[in-house]
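Reminder to self: keep the SMILES exactly as supplied, no canonicalising. Ligand is magnesium ion.
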Amino acid sequence: MSTEKKEKRILLVGRSGCGKTTLADTITHGSATYHKTQAITRVGNFIDTPGEYMENPNYYRGIILHAYDADLVIFMIPAGDETTIFPPSFGNSLNREVIGVVSKVDTGKDVEAPRRNLKLAGATKIFEISVHDEESLKQLCNYIYS
Ligand SMILES: Nc1nc2c(ncn2[C@@H]2O[C@H](COP(=O)(O)OP(=O)(O)O)[C@@H](O)[C@H]2O)c(=O)[nH]1
Ligand SMILES: [Mg+2]
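Structure tokens returned for the bound complex:
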């Protein structure tokens, strides 16, 4: 029997600009190269979705389909965002483990509303991260890859 770990695939979902591509790049390559995500792309183990996928209900089924290819789904809301694009319990329709990430906590902005909205969306566990805080990324990665 192989002890080799299967590479986990992670679907990243969140509004444009919340930090999905930066997180995927930073974890995969150690730094971010800016590009606007126009289509679903693979970065390392991450399936990166354009923000438009969650901003337009016509694309929800795209998210649902891509969740089938993922082992884990991450819903992301940046610190300071008081609104949510996630319908209540949206995570429950994905048939995958869904965790929440509050991004950009280095800005010092409010994390309580994002935490609340991530929970309402169906995230079972919530991490607070900043791409400028390696320790926060380590904690997230430890959970993702454990
Ligand atoms: N302060 C701060 N800015 C971040 C962080 N992560 C991403 N950003 C910035 O947020 C902007 C949008 O990031 P991007 O990854 O393109 O968002 P996406 O549309 O969700 O893929 C970029 O200018 C990033 O540099 C973070 O942890 N802290
Ligand atoms: Mg992007």
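Points to follow up:
The chain has one domain: 10-145.
The longest strand covers residues 72-78.
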